[in-house]
Amino acid sequence: MKVTPFTLERFFSQTEFNVRYHLAASAIQAWSLRELLSLANDPDLQFSLFATRLGYTEPEGIPELRREITRLYSAPTDPGHVFVTIGAIEANYLLLSTLLESGDRFIVQTPYYQQLSQVGIDIGATALLWQYHEDRGFDLQEFKALLDQKPTLVMLNTPHNPTGFIFSPYEMRQIADLCLERGIYLLSDEVYRELGETLLPSIRDYSSEAVSIGSMSKSYGLAGLRVGWMVGPPEIIARCAAKRDYTSLCSPSIGQHLALTALRHRNKIWDRNRRLRLRNMTILENALRTNPNLTWQKAEAGVVAWVGYSSKIPSEQVGWELHRRGVLVAPGIFFGQEGHFRLGFGGNSCELEAGLAILLDYFKKIE
Ligand SMILES: Cc1ncc(COP(=O)(O)O)c(C=O)c1O
Prior knowledge:
Elements: H1 7-15, E1 21-22, H2 33-40, H3 45-50, H4 63-70, E2 82-85, H5 87-99, E3 105-110, H6 115-123, E4 126-133, E5 137-138, H7 140-147, E6 153-157, H8 169-182, E7 185-189, E8 211-215, E9 228-231, H9 234-244, H10 253-264, H11 266-288, E10 304-308, H12 315-324, E11 327-328, E12 330-331, E13 340-344, H13 349-366
Parallel strand pairs: 1-11, 3-4, 3-6, 6-7, 7-8
Antiparallel strand pairs: 2-9, 4-5, 8-9, 10-13, 12-13
Helix pairs in contact: 4-10, 5-6, 5-9, 11-13
The structure holds pyridoxal-5'-phosphate.
């Protein structure tokens, strides 16, 4: 199979570990192992973690973790619906590469997290792009029009990267019903679901045939555990599991045990992460307000902002010029759209303020 470079990841590989102010990350600030363990406030925990066997685990994930993941879903879910993967990225890859075939059509939102469109395109399927509008988000009428082209799969991302848009329960119900009526596979990348004001609805609340993709990375700040999951019909999981036997076999044992600890204490983690998100969003709003040439729709969930600028400079050039000044943003072209960049505001608040000051100074000069 042809593999088109994942442009954002290639850019990050050259930039993200050598920059002063990283304002491109899509996750909330990472926790240290010490912070995570002290959050649990359980003196026996360290000892039980030390006893963890560092062998392979069950391919679907350790049973306790799968059980804990079911608690994130209010629709009837049992561990048989849960497949633990190496991050959401593996779940997305397995699903798209298993369910799509050459010649198929699939709907995907744009701007996009490249994986969600590229895997299908590289297989030989055609991506039907569902365009974001600054004034109204993703329009359901446009979705219905795309359905006339007879897609076999819909790849949703809600809350959405890079805009922070979320579908309302009404819209999710409509999308789910339309897919069910037509026998269309419905996948929903929900890695920011825990990072709104509350735990947001899942597509699984509206369709037992749909697949929800989640992760410990973005909303929890535990990307280094490399634990994600899919929750969906057992038949789909079985097909993905058969494919994963040829790649990674299982998610890391220690990552799964730490993910279990984190999920058992999720309310404390969500609480800190949501407070940080709100504080940083205010910093961002106040900063962007000072330059009317920089536009954005306030993110409804998650910690990424999709910022438009009026200069004609290509976004990749903007990315490199800012990098030279010590600030990292993610160029819009890597999400399929020029004139924008994605700004991650989930990190340290002081660093966000300092990085934004450099960014604003840069845009004052070029706009
Ligand atoms: C929408 C979306 N899905 C999936 C991923 C992959 O995340 P993970 O670390 O869980 O593999 C990302 C990472 O940027 C993302 O933004």
